[in-house]
Design a protein that fits this description.
Length: 397
Amino acid sequence: MPGFELFGDKERKQVNDVLETGVLMRYGFDGMRNNHWKARELEKALAARMQVKHAQLVSSGTAALTVALASAGIGAGDEVIMPTFTFVASFESILALGAVPILVDVDDTLTICPKAVEKSITERTRVIMPVHMCGSMADLKALKEICQRHDLLLLEDACQAIGGTFDGKPLGSYGDLGCFSFDYVKTITCGEGGAVITNNEKYKFNADHYSDHGHDHIGSDRGAEAHPFLGYNYRISELNAAVGVAQIERLDEFLGIQRKNYTILRSALETIPEVSFRRVPEGGVESYAFLNFFLPDQSTTEKVHRALGIGGVDACFYWYNNNWHYYKEWEHLTQIKSLGKLPQEVYNQLPDYNTSDFSQSDHWVGRTISCLIKLGWEEHEVQQRANTMCEIIQSII
Ligand SMILES: *Cc1c(COP(=O)(O)O)cnc(C)c1O
């Protein structure tokens, strides 16, 4: 991550195709567009790369999660189980549909804990939403088994782990639905954009309509199209999609660079006995977008994180007190600070997160440092970084 680092001629060429015709919209204007259908092209390429039947592009990763839930018929009062360590988009998408976000602990995978999931299932639960944080995945096998036993949907948020695999399958393709973000800082970027992938024809049909005001997309006269059900506008523009067409072709090149840089840093840190690494579930292969490691206790972790910053080692994150990624700073959620009234179901069913016990999450996230793996680093820079990190960690433990 992030794909913008290697932005170049291929991206410019794709964008210029769109600018030359001036058709910035993904639908209609057939005569003017000189046969450029960038959004369709990216959907085809993404579905092929992710080994699924269908992909639906939308305007963001948050939109992808919302559209994925909507396409499966999730609505007011339905409960969606999600982890305490994720991005705010998880609960935003759930609440956007009037559904209820049920937070549960993460474990040493830094993703949703299957045992905690099982304890949180009620008769209103409809979806389990694992989030493959920082380049590695949840225990999808255990989660799928729970879904099958309780007749629930498995929706993978693979926004931070595109290109990783589980049981030989691309992340996002293992569950019923998978979501990606192509925002500016993700492994491949469209500037802004996102996608839903699925093998389920009905979900694809629904996502296609829902993300474009419920339009049925039959015929070539947009004005004459019917709208069999309500939708919104979550469309991506052709300009954004064009960037993605160039970037997806480079995904495997980017993953190779991530893996190489990750391995240099990891090999160095492995020589320090006090450092341990997040658990990758059996059968999983990381995307190597981040290197995540644990230190023996929270206070050491805080000290090391501070020292890394002072020592000029950038792009290392301590998520425990981060605004965007950890429940502790989600005051807008825990205090339900909504501009307008939310559906009554949300007020009735939302647990009081001010009194919840997420000590298992605190135990792991409080000891975690994550290093973003950049694509633009030269090998000698990564070596230098590895040496500096080891010196700093050893000076503190
Ligand atoms: C980036 C991200 C999203 C949302 O993506 P946007 O395109 O920024 O809306 C959702 N989930 C996770 C885990 C992310 O990292």
